[in-house]
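fwd from M.: "can u put these together and see what the complex looks like"

so here's what she sent:
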Amino acid sequence: MSDPQHLIPHTALYAFITRSFVACGFPEEDADTAAGLMVKADLMGQDGHGVFRLPMYIKRLRAGGLNPTPEFRCLEDRIATALIDGDNGLGHLVMHHATQLAIEKAKTTGVAWVGARHSNHAGPASLYAMMPLEHDMIGLYVAVGSANHLPPWGGTEMLLSTNPIAVAVPSAENPPIVLDMATTVAAYGKVKTAAQRGETMPEGWMIDRQGKPLTDPTRASEGFLLPIGGPKGYGLSLIFGILAGVLNGAAFGRDVVDFNADSETTTNTGHFILALDIKAFADPDVFRADIDRVWAEVKSSPRLPGFDDIRLPGERLDRVTQERTANGIPLTGALRAQLDEMAASLDIDPLL
Amino acid sequence: MSDPQHLIPHTALYAFITRSFVACGFPEEDADTAAGLMVKADLMGQDGHGVFRLPMYIKRLRAGGLNPTPEFRCLEDRIATALIDGDNGLGHLVMHHATQLAIEKAKTTGVAWVGARHSNHAGPASLYAMMPLEHDMIGLYVAVGSANHLPPWGGTEMLLSTNPIAVAVPSAENPPIVLDMATTVAAYGKVKTAAQRGETMPEGWMIDRQGKPLTDPTRASEGFLLPIGGPKGYGLSLIFGILAGVLNGAAFGRDVVDFNADSETTTNTGHFILALDIKAFADPDVFRADIDRVWAEVKSSPRLPGFDDIRLPGERLDRVTQERTANGIPLTGALRAQLDEMAASLDIDPLL
């Protein structure tokens, strides 16, 4: 069932995304920043969060649901915290700004927490958690997801999103450890992919409104995603939604706009980034060597039958990034066709 | 199989724990602080983390594995961060000190992160996450667990602990939302309880060294706890262990001492507390009213068959605290006998 794949050089993809945004009225610098982050998502293997989302962003820009020329405002400012109003700009731009601010503050204070409201979908969580790494800092990012896919534990009203968390920690000889996870067993993108491929879902991904396992992904709208660890994942999704949404004055619960179904209504998406300066706790070189020891310990554990390797979070991301930087980014024929159509409608040069 | 339960007034339990610690050489003030926190754990219904642990703490104090007169040192100090050396004191005292410091710092900075090394078991995570609440702050606490019970995903060497997280958020009319969870499906205490009661565990709590479900709790030593969401819970446990352990220069991985099996070796337990000032983001009254709306939305969701209520994290904790404050704390006959024996050996008055 797989589409023929085309390998696209990341530089070509970057140029295409840039001109798409410029055609929609983005200032050149913002188009560059957003394109750089989106291509990075594709390079990292986050196929559901890179250029795959571009047609939806463009649709939203043209429908007036996304501001191409946002002016960020700092609504609250303390030594180690800030609250940013994203003026309904693309989430990548809002969180790029917020993360830079958190890094600057943490250089002095040791830790900084910057929240944002009136933002939008920002791609994969790991993008922002990884930005502090080059400053000898640890990053922690949380977002309210852009559509509600799960009810509170025991309920049937979809009040919660997959609210992801990402944490990135540097090492010396190994890739950084990068945890990037939804608080549900499966992300909703995996359900969509299973439907496209005509596959059955394993039990445990979703249940229907009677609480019975739902394994047919074409019936996804009749049920809900399941949180990891049952009530625990529900609790994580709730708390992350409060910290990234409610605290920032951003949407949560019934106020969350399903950005797949609605391109016009302001989403008021909330996120936060925490930057933690390693130097406030340890010599960064010593710490990175300690993380290498963690790698070595984990890798050397004897294995369960059926496992040929033990992976650390971020290991695949690093390998895929290297492969795709060298060889290009695979795009399905269906996505290529969609991007060609979008290019024609924007009257810009197509991807290649 | 249930033991006859005795209801003990919390004031009596507090006095007993205080004199136990004083008999072991604690300064009066430290004995008071530790007893207050331990009784609070019992009041909250955290039966496995309150006075239940006292005999083990006393055993460790008498074996020289715990310092009754620690002098805390601030090893690193930045405007919004600190690293505390707990001098092998009781974890409650170390984290009480660290949390007070985080609260003081966050009053100025908006957020503060205080880590600790050379600490010990500190009782339930929620104790510390809740301390910032009375200062209009949100608390977030993470610890390295005091014994390794799970391997990395796909492995068989128990390199990781249940590494819990707790987050507490205030409301106006409702109890605070308090998430307090291990990163495993079941805490190890639940396995021990099932064994005591002669019960079978559900599939999904543990697996054996072949990766097969382990449901007989008396065979717990032949297998491992399972992380929530499989590789996701493994990732959370790993990252929390790095933030609370490695970053602080505390034990992690092969260095973790099983404090159930060994009362003499210094555990070098690590934890951290984050205090976040709500006033740096919102008017606390508005925020608390927003959290009441979250309560109302969640409670009003239609329910799945078989559920007669939808609970928020912290709801049971609040109800149990009220009941036990009024009526007393239930202790099993077995625990009473253990405490009586301990009192005799310390030459102090028994519990009642």
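replying to her w this: The CA atoms of residues 71 and 143 of chain B lie 21 Å apart.
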